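This section describes the prediction task in plain terms. A model, or a person checking by hand, is given the sequence of a single protein chain and must write out its three-dimensional structure as a string of tokens. No templates, partner chains or ligands are provided. The sample shown here is typical of the held-out split.
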Amino acid sequence: MNRGRECLAVDPVRAALYVPPVLKQIPRLLSCLDREAHSVSFGCFDRSHWAWKFHDFPLTMLQINFYPLALLWRVPFQNNPYHQNAQVLSWIAGAMEYTCARQRPNGAFDSVGPFTQDHGVTLAMVFGLVETLRLIDSGIGSHLRERVVRAVRQGCEFALHSREDYAVITNHQALFAAAFLGAADLLNEDQWRCHADDVVGRILAAQSPEGWYREYDGPDPGYESLGIFYLALCWRRTGSERLLESLRRSIAFYAYSVHPDGSVGGVYGSRHTALYFPAGFEILAPAVPLADSVSRFMRQRLTQGNVLTPDASDMENLASLLYAYLEGCLGPPTPAGNAPPLPCESLNGVHRFQDCGIVVSGSPSYYAVVNTAKGGVCRIFSKEPAAVTYEDAGYCARSNDKLLTSQIIGLGGEVDSGRTDVVCCHTDFAEACQEMLTPVRFILLRILNLTAFRSIRLGGWIRRRILARLILKKRIVPLRLRRRLLFLPDAVHINDCVESTGGLPLQSLELTRSFTGIHMGSAKYFHPAEIRDHVTFDSSGLLDGLKKDGQGTVMCMIRFPAGSMPELVVSEGEPAMPSRARNVS
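The expected answer:
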């Protein structure tokens, strides 16, 4: 394999930040692993399945937890008690054996139920097995090595006859490319390198001219960082200049989604995530100065917890966070001095990304990000102190038994105002997706698992229908929001008008600080800014206007006075809620 031992050198500066939170989580990770060698489920990482027996089927993706364990076993990080530990090695080997034993005869791995035979999970297991074998190869016997090699080859062969076709999800595709490249090195077979090149080629062809990679219907900064990580691994293996140029453009876009308080993304992203995976930026920092800027800025603010960190993660995202932290420690230090300032530090004016509808405004007082494709949802941050001052996730309304939202991506857009400092946008309301798994639905799903999902083609068709219903379907209703934002050097004006276009009966209408109108498992993680006060305004009068005249309006101004805390002014009256407005740090 062409990824040599030099990649395992540890930068002590980065390790001092990234390794302690990883070590803190390893007892939790190991408690989720069945570590008893004589147990029927030895090597399973799904504790809800093997210990509590709440689930009838283990989640295969949880097996990727053997990868961060292998990094700790192999690399002598400071204060790392797992380094070269024989017991830890036996647990890693057991987890790999368990994983290989769950592979279908056709090479597929299941995802959340029997016979789901998932293209993405299969290549994720290939990636995890290859990377882990690379780390522990010298410590295991030939039997396990041969079994892993066989599982990798069979998984890749299955992936040639399956696909992930329900949406464009770039971070998944980037992982697939990394899996094929790793398999090419392990198996010494160039055909898998060709497949990796094909996947990367499709990613680059779908990349926006603005630099962002597509995640369903637009850019999602949280998942963009994960895609950047996997593509950075591919670049490190191949040295592709074409891929490096693509990553430069991605990071140039991504830099605008880094906020003064060390948060990233959020409601204005296509998938609502506030994830941050640092390894891609650390890998690319020597070659891409702006990646160095992102990594250094975020390193200084990670302890604030305004992005998802291992402390706040569930098991579904824990492994990828842990190995992204550990991989971020590896490699030589990046010389200081080349990193340019980020937009949240230097932007003075308004920058538009027309392709996705995102508008960014910066001044010496504040930094704001708006997504017009989602009806003007926004996050506004004060520069001093560096904190979220105002954020909204659009409006939620209730009509009979249905919950409606103004934030569904793709239903809105910007209207040319003729001014660079003014953003005018509109959007239709649509039904929010809040479907839950019920006992009846679960029984139906298991019947499908044991029947229709045995056919890869039919199972794929059902999967596409389910995901379209949970994420992609847009059920528009006759209600519309028009929003106008004016960006001044020391203030942001917001003018909203909600109008009925079809006599829809409404029981309530409320502007929400946070809301997720689609199914998205990687959203809604807690961050400390949620419990800090921020400026907000009363939108209850909108409903009265709608019922009386068919439209309701509200106006406010968020002001950033020099030398004092931000405050909210509704219309031209006195500052609203001064005690709350002045406590946003």
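For orientation: The two ends are 50 Å apart (CA to CA).
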